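Standup notes, structure subgroup. Blocker cleared on the magnesium ion input:
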Amino acid sequence: MKPNCPKAGGNISGSTFNMKSGHFELVTHSPEQTQQIGTAIGKQAQSGDLILLVGDLGAGKTCLTQGIAWGTGFDGYASSPSFVLVREYRGKLTVYHIDLYRLDTIEEITELGIDDYLCGEGICVIEWADKALHYLPQEYLLITFEHLTDNERRLRFEPNGPRYFKTIEQIEEKWN
Ligand code: ADP
Ligand code: MG
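Run returned:
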């Protein structure tokens, strides 16, 4: 399907899809575009989904999470939960927005009671998930952010688990 490009900030570009590995990459050219990708993910999210976000400070993780929250029907604003560590956004589904930035050891992370969120209703979106990759369930959608220029970010999607292949396929259909 071609192309259904978001108007704000021009076209999302540079998308490549490797069907064999299931990896998918695209470049967004504005925060709004990153939010739009998030909204597409949030719209088809299902209870139990786990979305792991990896990338430097300012890479766009919270921006994408904002879109995910909107996609689930939440109408407020997401902000980086670096100080409270977990924030909840209640739309049709609850989004648990977790940020591991300030945590250093796996003990600190387990003390956060992350299991309750992972096993509960709703979906979990975890920033700096690379800090806890070995501790987290094996099925997840991993999104890695690369800061290209002031307004450009490369997003790489790696589905781990059949459920997430579907998500990627739909994003690919919409933006490729
Ligand atoms: P992180 O959570 O990864 O630390 P944030 O989402 O909080 O990053 O911040 C991303 C910053 O980069 C915001 O100030 C946003 O306006 C800016 N930005 C510029 N271009 C983009 C883009 N294409 N996608 C996402 N954010 C962008
Ligand atoms: Mg953040």
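Discussed briefly. The chain has five helices and eight strands.
Next: hand off to the docking folks.
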